[in-house]
């Protein structure tokens, strides 16, 4: 039902109408374009084989990457992102008219140049700033030097050098003959000094200084006393800061134009998609050919549109076995949001069944049982509705909404309302209300919860096997279906039935099978025949009898896997109990602080609200993940192979924006 | 000697061992995620689940500890617990204490790898979560075993 039939479609137009065709296809958004080079019907044609592989238009790609960079840069000035936006992407909404108009009227090249200029200047400023700060830092040591630094160096008769020596060598300086030196400053490691001596003995003095570990400091290019220089650099630094502030202000001003840039981006990326489609088609001397996929019901619509063309022809065919058509799944409204879960795992291919309607009831019930708290269910529904109001009807939120409803049901029958809140409050009405809905209290008697989990697991695993059998029949593998899925279905069911029957009539397991008249024989039949079928038939048709027998025996060993699968469903109970436990502990702590005078009530309310909010988040997360896992690992493995890819019609798409169709 | 002490050791072990496991597990995931965020700050929401997943073991341990505390009446008037009952409660705490400790650490490693995957292919964020949930199964089983052992101890 739920996988929509798609047909292969091939368009041929005269070259002169190529652009018109591509434009029309994009506007209508009905056709999933495929590459002729991958099409089994065309890929052997020499023209296709020799076709040059071209990327989409490089100029467009270049502008797109410029905009991406600019947007990333502007994001810093765009005001803070809300908490919600870190979890959900919120795109601004625009109309199709805006998408077409803005790129024509808005000079985005100018804005991009400006932004890039600012970005570049900011980097430069940063480097200059680092440079200046390090200069100031090194000059600080020479702050007390009272001569302009340009005087350090060689003059007519005298040479002056500035530099450092290790602090512990300072007293050795006295031993060097014929020099004058003056210590400017000291720190823990070095002594900063200038040394003067006659030019003639320069080499000798320098050698001796080197022996002490002297390192010359160069003031090349600087003029003035260090003190003045520091002041000058500081002023320069302030100028830099001022300039940076200005640039940042400019950037913040430009950030107001971000939406326009986003629109231009989406416009250009759609233009780029057109080029891509053009490249996926085949151009001959006078015609242009492009292939794709279309939903069966859309063919008529397309026919009407193509009538406007002078030269357009198209042909629609069923996909051939070599084809690999994309998958489009479409479900009725209440199930629709759960398509999300199917897509998360991977879409079915065309020959598969769509598992969405099958997993929906299970996921809902499992989610409810993992949460098992009516209070949390209500809170979750409220949160989901609030988020929907803000973010629009997201599939994910709808799934949470259904989950919340199931959690209320599960919570009501197990008497869990914000944990044990209703029983711990001294309000008789709440007790009565809780008890009137209560089916069993897992805190006192957890076994019903345990059995409920197992029974649900049994139902889902058995259903999975039946669907697997149905699939085999559909594909003409009836024998394999009987030897595998159907046998396991019967085996698992009738492995359990004797326990239940035995418990009812007071007989042991063996007695039910062998000493219980006709009923016993029927049960035995459905238990032992499948075992034989698995041993003798499930080994396949190739290989010798012994090999097949060994394979069959090995397959029978798969029983451990099924037992594991069933036990895996006990997590429903475990997570339900954990919710109850955490909620209870929050209530206990809130109650503990209550007797504190004055503050107690405030603290208790804070702990109650904060604690439960936290607990809801943690438990919803757990419920979602584990319910999903049961679908993927325990259920899907029985029948489902993904391997489809999504039917994505070529149309107008918004990368940064949500484009509303104009009426 | 009163069995109360032994029961308290059990409650303590359930809470602190599973808690240590979760702390180490989230230690791995948190570091991996912070590394990713330095490059792609928008990924916070998408990585949230993977970071938080190894945290559940700590809760499982805490719940068992809480049940033991309630069972021996530590929050009100302590009940008379024999040494045998104390040992029974200690035994009941062990499955979640050890399964929680080790599974959380390994889940942390699995999820940290998943965070790397998500960083490279953001559309694949949900698949590593399922791998993480596979590790968690054994913590769930540990919790259930502890739970069933505990509720069947008569005091």
Question: What does this protein look like?
Answer:
The complex is a heterodimer of chains A (663) and B (155). Chain A is an alpha+beta fold and 663 residues long. Among the domains of chain A are: 138-232, Alpha-Beta Plaits (2-Layer Sandwich); 443-569, no CATH class. In chain A, 59% of the residues lie in helices and 10% in strands. Chain A has 24 helices and twelve strands. In chain A, α18 runs antiparallel to α20. The model of chain A has no long low-confidence stretch (mean pLDDT 87). Chain B is an all-alpha fold. The longest helix of chain B is centred in the middle third of the chain and has 38 residues, at 83-120. Chain B is 81% helix and 0% strand. Chain B has a single domain (3-151), classed as Four Helix Bundle (Hemerythrin (Met), subunit A) (Up-down Bundle). Chain B has helices at 3-39, 44-52, 56-71, 83-120, 126-151. The chains are: A alpha+beta (663), B mainly alpha (155).
Give a short summary of the structure.
The complex is a heterodimer of chains A (663) and B (155). Chain A has 663 residues and is of the alpha+beta class. Helix content of chain A is 59%, strand content 10%.
